[in-house]
Amino acid sequence: MFPQSSRHGYEEIDDTHPSHTPYSHKIKAVCSLAKKKLNGVWTKKTLYKRFPILRWMPPYKTDDAIGDLLAGVTVGLTVIPQALAYANIAGLPTQYGLYGSFLGCLLYIFLGSCKDVPVGPTAVAALLTFQSLGGKGIEHAILLCFLTGVVQILMGLFGLGFLIDFVSGPVSSGFTSAAALIIVTSQMKDLLGIEASGNTFVDTWKSLFHDIHHVRLWDTILGVICIVILLLLRMVAQINIGRTEAPTKSDRIINKSLWVFGTSRNAILVVLCGIIGYMFCRNGEPPFLVIGTVPQGLPDFKLPPFGFSKEINGTTVVTTFVQMISDLGSGIIVVPLVGILENISICKAFANGKPIDPTQELIAIGTANLLNSFVQSFPGTGSLSRSAVNNASGVRTPLGGLYTGVLVILALLFFTPYFYYIPKATLAAVIIAAVVFMVEVKVVKPMWRSKKSDFFLGIVTFVSCLVLPLEQGILIGIGINLVYVLYHAARPKISVEKLFSRGGTEYLLLTPDRCLIFPSTDYVRNLVTKHSIRQGIPVVIDCSHIYGADYTAATVIESITSDFASRDQPLLFYNLKPSVSSVFEGLSPKDFVVFYNHDEVDELLKNRSCIKKQMEIMD
Fold this sequence. Notes:
This protein has 619 residues and is α/β, with parallel strands linked by helices. 61% of the residues lie in helices and 6% in strands. The protein is built from 26 helices and 9 strands. The N terminus and C terminus are likely disordered. It comes from Dendroctonus ponderosae. Its main location: membrane.
């Protein structure tokens, strides 16, 4: 039964034995490799990196708990009216904004690396959802949330967080400013009490003007008054009474009270207008539109729809998963990218000099979106406005999200019947008063003074996002930005100087300012050839700024050295990095001479002259 040893010392394996099949050996090898990989991945360092709660929870103190409680409640009072309004931007029933406002906050406690980030619906994410849906129903929004989470998690696992670096400041500013104007435009219909629709800024305004004769006076008056009150309360939150350097206790109490009052402006205004709406509804039809019935209770925890069927005019229409993917289009890529861009921007704004981990944020936000799709939410991310409130409230750790999530859950369980009476114009005012400050007017003048091409890039992105759907506009901005980057990579600057060595030999010094890669090689070759032929003296290429090269660059260097040798014109390479030199030497270029000391120029040229004379004598 046991394998016998042969006279050559090899085992004769009985292939019929079940433990010695070829497949069993492969499976054992795979299992062994997987075990080693897992042991390498799940180290203590990695565990603490992927679950940041393990770092900040052990030293958690009472002061931290008080700071998180106050901040969490303050953010909760801010997110509830915002969530109701953002669902309207996404073109979805009001309750779906609240569905996406509690689970992400709770999950971010364990996976989030930034204490200031409150995860939930945002204005930009809601607008991108609306444009990606294109009039489709809630099923598409929930699937988009699921796919957004999947894409973000995969980006995190494969270390693709660097992709957001291709969205430059001008592109981001143009996109954000255009998105703010589109959001304001989308809320004009509720502010005026009319019907309007449209996927772009231009289309929406056309629709508004088409129905402008149906404007409801009381909705407009209420909306304008609410916007004025919100802007005034925003100013109240910034008032500081007394001395700034050493305020008295009473000054601190008054300033803190004013700040809380101003910061809670959305919740205060929604409650007051809800009471007004309730009083009108008791006496009959209110003079303004209200949001209507909001289902009470928590959403069911279930799989997102990977296909669904609906009965339309007595006919059952089936929509498959593939068709839903096709309907969502580029939104599947753009929504996750913009979401993580928003989140990383918040992390940088409140980092206080600490390093940012984009991979961990991708995993955290992606997991939040993935699980939010199980509670019927649309995509969300970190909110800049709520992050500012969170930071100013004195949040200490991500545990502040616990109290925010609990408040939203309580609102869903007990307060949704009262949401019926909230005027639509009030929610529109909440959104307009919040996003109008997203228009980045302050960056226009510095951008113009700094670099005109960046200003042009920002304007093109801004106009593209207004005229076209938002996801197409930002893709155009990123595309033009990449063309800029590639152009600069393909056109390095080369300084040209005529110098004399210590021995009095005149030579031409050419200094490229960046790496030699395939887009730039022909350009560099033409410049080197042109200047060398025109001057007809020895040429030295200063390679101090060349930190990398590729095969195409090596072929060009081989060609250049060959051309110089055929013209019998000396060519030397100064201060070439060893890693780059090895790339060039791979093709064995002719007369390839590298030196690292300027004093060697005379000796190298003299040796070359001696060699030339010897060759002439031999000829």
